[in-house]
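Input chain follows. Return structure tokens only.
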Amino acid sequence: MNTPSSPVAVIDIGSNSIKTLVARRAPDGTIEALANRTLDCRISAGISADAPRLGEDGMIRGLAAIRELLQVATPFAPAHITLVATSAVRDAENGGQFRARVLAATGYAIRILSGEEEAGLIGLGLTSDPALAHLRDFYVFDLGGGSLECLAFRDRRITQALSLPLGCVRLTEKFIAAPAAPLDPDAALGVALHVRQKLKSSGFRFDLPAPADAVFTGGTITTLRALKGALHGVTVADTPAVVPVAQVSFVLDEIAPLDLEARRTVPGMPQARADVLPAALLTVLAVAETAGLDRLHHSLHNLRWGLAAELLA
């Protein structure tokens, strides 16, 4: 019998949260998570500006989160530790300054992923999820704070990969002038129309027969499952991993009339995501309409898992 591989650690510096995964190759060849943690610290305020910049507060929060997650990984003595950044740092005028501060404080350089690299690594991560092994032809959508990654699989191979600037923080800043107020119907319409137009003009082909299979990753669907779990008194892991599109519409209808303070009191609501959740749900619904979806498979095997697979190869 093979022995487990030495562990590796990945720190994913996203727009809305920073996450770590410590993983190794198990004797049966699968990727086994040893530690997995997410810190909501939103370094991406201002990402919708013509010349986006990381704010000082965001960089301080980001550096503190990276240090904390390195401490999570260190006891496992990983053979490799990699730090990657996506839309927020990639697009920021002063992203290089943030990278230099992280390098000086931790000794680790940040690898900036292009949108295409990010999409491809998300696809690689998803193919490591045993719960999705039955899917052959399907779409993948990863919704973050800064961008939306879109992929298509045929016979479990990536045939399309595209990154679009449709993250929920970016769209909230662009269209929702008062995110602490109840959702304005005109703002909601603006988000939905913008997402549909971007998808249709992107060149991405929505050519799988409807209703197509689609996998969603990212915090939005995790939040939907958390809300459902809180309603029934169970953990996220004990809620169904297949989410009907009708459930997305129901949650949006429930939270749209609430101001931010009331939204944050909804059982299961992540405090740091309550302001951007309306834009995120509107985006999911626009994607579902464009792609012809009636249900969403949810997976946690996204970018970090793809990076771990790359390191363990």
